[in-house]
Amino acid sequence: MNDIEHQHQSLPNTDIYQYGEPLQAQQLTPMTELVLTHIDDNYPKLQLYVAGVVYSLIATIICLFIGFITPLSITAKLLLIVFILIVAVLIIRLTYLKALTVCYGVFKDELIMRQGLFWMSTTALPYTRLQHVNLSQGPLERQYQLVTLKCFSAGSGEAEINLPGLNADTAEHLRQHLLYQAAENQSSEHKVITASLDS
Amino acid sequence: MNDLQPQEPDTQKNAIPCALLTDWQALSPWSILSFVMTSLRSIFTNGYALVPIFYAGWTNDISLFWIIDGAAILIGLLTTFAFIQWRKFRYRVKVNQLDVKRGLFFTKKDEIPLNRIQNIRFEQPFYFKPLNLAVLVIETAGSSKDEARLSAINAQHAHVLKQQLLQLQHEDVESSQLKQNENTPHQSLALTQPIITRSLKELILFGFYQNNFIWFAIIAGPIAGQIEWEKIVQSALFQQLITWVNHTTHESFILQLVLFVGLFIAGYVLFSAISIIASVLKYYPYTLDKRQQTLQRSGGIIAHQQDALAIKRIQVIHFHQPLLARVVNRWTLYLKQVKGNEVEEKTKQHMLIPAVKPNEIEQIFHPLSSLSQTPIRLPEGYMPINIAWLYKRIWLPFIPFTALSVLALLTPLPIDKALIEVALVAALIVCALLFVRFKRWGYFLQHDAVWQHSGLFGKHWKRIPFEKIQHVKIIQTHAQKKKQLAYIELGLASGAIVLPYIAIDTANLIAARAFNTISPHYKQWI
């Protein structure tokens, strides 16, 4: 009953919607705000485990060193150990949070990847500049069916895009797509050249 | 064998690309000499680290015979090795690829597609000049170390071979239009278009402003470590010197200062002279020519050297003006290539044009129309980066000063007042330098390129064409996001270039222009 009454009540603020001016090209979503796909959920978990083991080992060794070897008073030792443990937990937590931020997007002409906790970096690599693609899988990654995808361009020996934690199936699919795109782009160049020579 | 070859390709070049060379060719036996000399040279140039060892040997009275024996064994080994190398080395030029075979136990065969050749260097060391022989070094993308090296080829043949290797990769419309002109070598010379020459005076100027103390430090470092300074200070000669200085200056501080400044200037002039001589020996007479779609630089007094670089391989043009060059208003131009494939093999240097006046820049790039549609000249000014860059850094140099003052005030630690003063002065100096650096940061946006301006004492302009960009990276912190600022990194084959603290709108604009240029269609860019 109430609903019907509401329908006929006239509210000047909500009945007319102002659409405003159409968006200009500059107002469209920029590269840094694009909505991207997150990588496999297992990757942050794996990073958490690895970082947990590594940093707790380091922290334990330092704590043992402080506890038995350094000539300090008991309170100073305890304070130091507590400090080191807090730092270790913080580092482990940050590693996990950083792994959570990794995401990527496959667009018509570019592959875009975003990562970073404090320094949020968005990298875009057009398919026309792709030289080769590399899939790699470490022993731990194999347990979780994860794969790291690397995309290289010319010049620097480093990968322009280093995308870890992809599901193995997705990664293979992605690799094939990228290679196809690169090949497609390069063959279209030859078409242009033969056309210009014929004319 | 090689003597016969030059005429053949000359006449048959266009009919069948070099019918004779499709067979496997051996190098001339002179290549043994070339190999031994380059090995010896690399041993000596990398051998300044051995100076302390020799010095120690000399002081420990090792007999001269040992040294002679050692040298003889070294040269004997090198010669044997070079002989085997020469016996096993074969090359051939096919229609669109160069094959090189070498090695005794591990035979290695390289097949180099001609369109993958990055640049070709023509070298003529002094011992090959009377023999009219030369060395061709062929560099490809990817392999920076194991490039093909054809040594002791007849000089004319080397030129022909170089033209073949370079021209074959440009079977584009332009060269097919020019084809009828190419039949005679006389007319093909007309295809060479001079870009710029540098006179002796300009090379001297270049050596003067480009000189630096780094070379001195490299040479002097190991030697200075060997000298026993205490003994020298205590030696009679040094004491005499001190008394002489005190006597002649009448122990007046001003005169002593004048003496030391004079000594410093004399030392500086000495280093400048070394640098000037090096520059003249390396580059005189400097000529840069455009031959079809390649740039060729030649020069050198002792060892004649000729570098060839395909114009489309040029990625970034880097204009550099060191502090001294500002007085004479000259710029050094570097034509940056793909990283790891620089023209200069050892020093990893890019092809450079020394001592260029600002008004000459437009003329230099006018014939190189494939680099840019619009004329290339230095921008008049630049947009500054955001002041937040400075705020983020300016307080850092004060950390040692603050820490020292706090410790001195609050704790009973014995901290010298002089130390705190030094920390303050150092912090102020670093602040001033940071401010200068901030003032120099900037960018200039064009339709087809973006320029980066930076520097501290000198000035750098880098022209980044959008069509050469490989990837774009935008980096933001949370604070930058609030202030609408960003770092933008433009990845190129010659290395990444960063513009810090620019407005996010500008960063997006640069990214948009780059992607609009490179994404829609593929074009070979390296």
Automatic annotation (TrEMBL), chain A:
Residue ranges crossing the lipid bilayer per the database entry: 48-72, 78-107
Signal peptide segment: none
Domain YdbS-like PH: 104-178
Domain of life assignment: Bacteria
UniProtKB keywords: Membrane, Transmembrane, Transmembrane helix
Full protein name: PH domain-containing protein
Originating organism: Shewanella holmiensis
TrEMBL record, chain B:
Positions of transmembrane segments: 64-84, 203-224, 253-281, 394-412, 418-436, 485-504
Domain YdbS-like PH span(s) in chain numbering: 86-164, 439-510
UniProt KW keywords: Membrane, Transmembrane, Transmembrane helix
PANTHER family with a match to the protein in the record: UPF0699 TRANSMEMBRANE PROTEIN YDBS, UPF0699 TRANSMEMBRANE PROTEIN YDBT
Name of the featured protein: PH domain-containing protein
Organism placement in taxonomy: Bacteria, Pseudomonadati, Pseudomonadota, Gammaproteobacteria, Alteromonadales
